[in-house]
Inverse folding.
């Protein structure tokens, strides 16, 4: 099955939140003034601890005793780039009773609000948007793919720099992959005192993890073509 043409080169805020929730293996639960660090190591992700559901309506909504809760998650770049914090996600809601870190069951949370904070600002997402959003097929494999690229194919990363437009100046000290999603690859260009991210979009959005390899190879082929036709970084 071929990927569908990309209508955008970057994921939306709700897509990013969906991916962060699926890939996270730790989070902070703030409930009744206590902060609990939750770590999940069995591969289900941190959200395996919580089941999100819509706010109660009618008579049930007036029932007292519900406890406010806040879930805090961070999105960290898996590669050793400068400033590895990519985003923060905060989910607020209500519990039927105070959170127990010793519970072996998924905790039911009445969803209130979702917030994404990153370099571009703050965005709000609803439960309806999260439920309607398809999970990025690369979300839970991104870290492994990027570390493999850096550890085993580091010589290919500078080659990808040839695709960046406008052409970077001579001040670039280092370039590393900072992220990959169904729409493309993000490179971080590091300078002496600052850095910036650039996107290399895929020709088609990835619908299955097995399809990301050909998309990356297509980027590399284009970079090699540019080098042979004289479009070198000078």
């Amino acid at each position: 099955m071929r990927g569908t043409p990309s209508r955008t080169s970057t994921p939306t805020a709700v897509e990013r939140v969906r991916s962060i929730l699926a890939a996270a293996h730790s989070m902070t639960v703030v409930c009744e003034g206590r902060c609990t660090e939750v770590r999940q190591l069995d591969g289900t992700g941190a959200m395996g601890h919580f089941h999100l559901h819509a706010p109660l309506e009618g008579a049930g909504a007036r029932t007292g005793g519900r406890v406010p809760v806040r879930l805090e998650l961070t999105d960290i770049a898996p590669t050793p780039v400068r400033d590895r914090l990519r985003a923060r996600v905060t989910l607020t809601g209500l519990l039927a009773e105070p959170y127990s870190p010793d519970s072996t069951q998924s905790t039911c949370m009445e969803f209130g609000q979702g917030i994404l904070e990153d370099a571009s600002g703050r965005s709000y997402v609803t439960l309806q948007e999260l439920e309607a959003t398809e999970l990025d097929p690369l979300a839970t494999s991104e870290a492994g793919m990027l570390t493999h690229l850096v550890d085993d194919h580091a010589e290919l990363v500078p080659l990808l720099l040839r695709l960046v437009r406008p052409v970077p100046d001579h001040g670039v000290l280092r370039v590393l992959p900072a992220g990959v999603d169904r729409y493309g690859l993000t490179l971080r260009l590091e300078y002496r005192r600052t850095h910036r991210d650039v996107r290399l979009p895929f020709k088609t959005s990835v619908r299955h993890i097995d399809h990301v390899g050909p998309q990356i190879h297509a980027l590399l082929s284009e970079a090699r073509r540019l080098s042979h036709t004289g479009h070198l970084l000078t």
About this structure: Strands lie at 26-31, 34-39, 50-53, 67-76, 85-95, 107-118, 121-125, 174-181, 184-190, 195-201. The two ends are 40 Å apart (CA to CA). The chain has two domains: 13-132, 142-228.
